[in-house]
Amino acid sequence: MPSGATAVSCTAGRSADTPFLLLCAAGCRRQLNPGGHQALFFSGVRQRLWWSNMTKNTSSSSSGFRFSWNDPRFRSIVYQVLILGAVGLGVWYLVSNTLTNLANRNISTGFGFLDREAGFAIGESPIAYSPADTYGRAIWVGILNTLRVAVLGIVLATLLGTVLGIARLSSNWLVRRVAGVYVEVMRNVPLLLQLFFWYAIITEVMPGPRQALNPVTGVFLSNRGLKLPAVMGDALDWMLWGLGLAVVLIVLVAHWARKRQEATGQIFPMVRVALALLVLLPAAGWLFSGASLALELPELRGFNFVGGITVSPEFAALLAGLVIYTSAFVAEVVRSGIQAVSKGQWEAADSLGLPRARVLRLVILPQALRVIVPPMTSQYLNLTKNSSLAVAIGYPDLVSVVNTTLNQTGQAIEGILIIMAAYLTVSLAISVFMNWYNKRIALVER
Predict the structure, then answer these.
(1) Superfamily for 135-182+313-441?
(2) C or N terminus of the chain, fewer CB within 10 Å?
(3) What is the CA radius of gyration of the chain?
(4) Per the confidence metrics, is the pTM higher than 0.70?
(5) Phi and psi (nearest 5°) for 59?
(6) pLDDT digits (tens, 9 = 90+) for 206-242
(7) How would you classify the pairing of strands 304-306 and 219-222?
């Protein structure tokens, strides 16, 4: 039979079977001798049967789950179960071993000790506290002290770091070099050494209370810390409420002014309005309360000052160390963010005749924020966690208070868990806020 007849017999009725057609076409390319078409036909049939079996196996393995070691999904589940079992076994061993050791030493477990009387004093507290209060309240005082230094440190480090980052790009040679030396020195000296340095400056170099420095009336600086005038009276609460209301109104007005400018191009005098709200609303609260407000000045009595507000040497040294150290890293973040903006943006703004300061504030920094915010989040987290070094200079932060608590109660594990939970909560809160802000200022792609 001719080869064409063989090809027709192989492909007849098989137009939908692509693998079979390919096999037959490959076999029909050969020059067949008479009578060889039957061998070719049966060879094609065997190839088709083999292909159909492979297709069935593949489809069944991809659609159905088999309890077989040859099934990759079954193996992955087995591996995961074994790993989870090993981790669970390790945790069980550690927990049981810890409980056994605590029971052998007659140490109770749990957080019931938080309701017992603390019996120790805390040097400075933003809320009322006495040794008769509970351990729980003492730990809360430590958390508030940590938050106070962290929040102030973040604000001051951001302001100082931004100024230094801009100074690093200044056209003035002296300003640029001074900022560069500051950054290189401060970020390469360990923070703990800087804390010791600033604490020694305040407590050893500063004069005593009788020879205290008095740069302004009512302000005294000595080795006992910084003494400032205090505002006293019933009107203080009303003024604080007025100040809070002013801040909320400033945020709302700023949002409205930005939308208005985007729609009409008109610039709203936001600075003057903000200053007016910050002055008028607290003044209105003062008048509404009956104008009962007095200024308490610190005065020297005996060997120390009485009255006024005291900024302790420990708090001042810790805040100074955190701000100076972190601002060096913030400066580099700001500098890199500004340099990430293309030079054409500067040139375009200069062509409009805008002053250099307005170009930086309205054109460059808004674009640089998209580069600045992510690494700035890491610096904020570092500052918050670095505040735990306060125990080295005696500032009663969370770590210091918990250390005293666990030394008195023996609840070491619970104390460490409280410290971990507190720092984890604060760090996650900072991360969530910064991620929200980063998403808010990000470019929206079409």
Answers:
(1) MetI-like (1.10.3720.10)
(2) C
(3) 37
(4) yes
(5) -65, -40
(6) 888 888 888 888 888 888 888 888 877 777 778 888 8
(7) unpaired
